[in-house]
Amino acid sequence: MTEAPPPVAPQPTPQKKGLAIASLVAGLLCCAPVGLVLGIMSLVKKDQGGKGMAIAGVVLSALGLIAYPAVLIPALLAGKGVASMGVCSVQLAKVGTMLQNGDSAGADRLVSESSGACPLVLVSHQGNPSEPGAIIAYCQGHTIGGQKMILCLLGDGSVKPLPEAEFRDALGQAP
Ligand SMILES: [Zn+2]
Question: How far apart are the CA of 130 and the centre of ligand 1, in A?
Fold first, then answer.
């Protein structure tokens, strides 16, 4: 009886920790989907070391994924609010320029053309230098960081977002 060949000694493979480290870093940095994928790849691949780090990466990433909607959705909404407020800001500034040039018809036209997502409202056809804070025109408002901000064209020609309560007060004092 011949002796069975000795089992091939498991190669002392150098531990590859790259994936595990990358997973952990991605998990820590809240790149949750990346961390999750890298961590799982690291755990599945036989030649990968750093199991502890990979598991930590997967756990952190999974927690991150759960937290994502809570963090991301308001951030996205705020971003959208800021972006559309930018459009209104440009429109209101144009209205202000037209009124300062005495182009009431042009201002009216711009306001009537703004009947999209955020229609503008024209309060007065005249910039009022004696009441620089008076609201000349305003838009429907944008929710930024959970607070509704009304974008206003003021008597001095500036465009300024006002919190809703402040806006109501200012509007009450408008001519
Ligand atoms: Zn607006």
Answer: 26
Domain boundaries, the chain: 18-71, 74-173
Cα(34) to centroid(ligand 1), Å: 36
CB atoms within 10 A of CB 130: 7
User: Over its length of 175 residues, how does the chain's per-residue pLDDT go in tens digits?
Assistant: 556 666 665 555 567 888 888 887 777 776 778 888 888 888 888 787 788 888 888 888 888 778 777 777 777 777 777 778 888 999 999 999 999 899 999 999 999 988 777 899 999 887 555 678 889 999 999 988 888 999 999 988 899 999 999 999 888 754 4
CA of 160 to the centre of ligand 1 (A): 11
3-class secondary-structure state, position 144 = strand
Q: How far is the CA of 131 from the centre of ligand 1 (A)?
A: 23
Burial class (CB in 10 A: 0-12, 13-18, 19+), 40: middle
